[in-house]
Amino acid sequence: MPKDELRPRTEADEVRLRDAGFRWGEKGTHTSRTIMLEELRAVLANCRPDATRGDYLAAVHEDNCLGKRTAATRKVSSQRLSELYALDPKVPLFRVMRLYWYANRDDQALLALLLALARDPLLRVTGPPVLQMRPGEELPRQQMTDALNRAAGSRLSESTLDKVVRNAASSWTQSGHLKGRGRKVRQSVTPTAATTAYALLLGYLTGTRGAALFETLWAQVLDAPTGELIHVAMDARRLGFLDMSQSGGVIEVAFSRLLAPDERRWAHGTD
């Protein structure tokens, strides 16, 4: 499995990743929340497809689209959703995800997981233990705990570690990778044009290019071999979700129609 792909090597890397919307470090929303899929659906359903960040916050705080009893709980909910998803069209990762979001409701769970993985380092750490499982295997919770311990060391107490494991297991269940309540069992998800395009975009914005885009952590979330993902990516190209060409065994993927000119420049590492 790939290591955390969000460890910037230079200051320029750090600026590009942060501007795209990625987050890294030892802290994460999963100490207190899951990916909050239904809450995200409620907020996006309550707003126009071209909503601003202010519109999203108003939907939570003023319209109370999440049905919270107090202003304090509404504020906390919007903070956690912002940590996971940005809720800001000025952030490329959220803006592009939002374009894919409205294409098909069945894609929303995987899209939410992919973006949450990009923004929550603790959830990202739990990826390899889940993705290494075969369909029908029971979740190895101790492996997830060990992975978190290696990543965070002594910074997380035993009770916090346990909570992160429970929340992460719930998140992977919401995405469709696990099923069951107390006993979590692995099942496979199915990639679509939108989810494949978004997984490739995440790899692209971290600096990965060519065929390696189909081997990143984001691509592995889709539970499909490289050949199948390439086939689905060709469908995504026909739908305008990405640019892709194949010639002489060389694969080129780009996102000229989805990224602004300045975003394309810093994605390539140029000013």
What does this 3D model show about the protein?
The chain contains 14 helices and four strands. It is mainly alpha-helical and 271 residues long. The strands form two sheets. The chain has a two-stranded antiparallel ribbon. Strands 3-4 form a two-stranded antiparallel sheet. Helix 5 runs antiparallel to helix 6 (108-119) and helix 5 (92-101) runs antiparallel to helix 11. The longest helix has 17 residues, at 158-174. It starts with 10 loop residues before the first helix and ends with a helix.
Quick tags:
271 residues, mainly alpha, two-stranded antiparallel ribbon, 4 strands
Task: Give a brief rundown of this model.
The chain has 14 helices and 4 strands. It is mostly helical and 271 residues long. The strands form 2 sheets. A two-stranded antiparallel ribbon has the order 1-2. It has a two-stranded antiparallel sheet with strand order 3-4.
Specify the structural class. Answer: mainly alpha
Order of helices and strands: HHHHHHHHHHEEHHHEEH
Largest sheet: 2 strands, antiparallel
Mean pLDDT: 92
SSE blueprint and pairings:
Elements: H1 11-20, H2 37-46, H3 53-61, H4 71-85, H5 92-101, H6 108-119, H7 121-125, H8 127-131, H9 141-152, H10 158-174, E1 178-179, E2 185-186, H11 193-205, H12 217-220, H13 226-238, E3 243-247, E4 250-254, H14 261-267
Antiparallel strand pairs: 1-2, 3-4
Helix pairs in contact: 5-6, 5-11, 6-11, 11-13
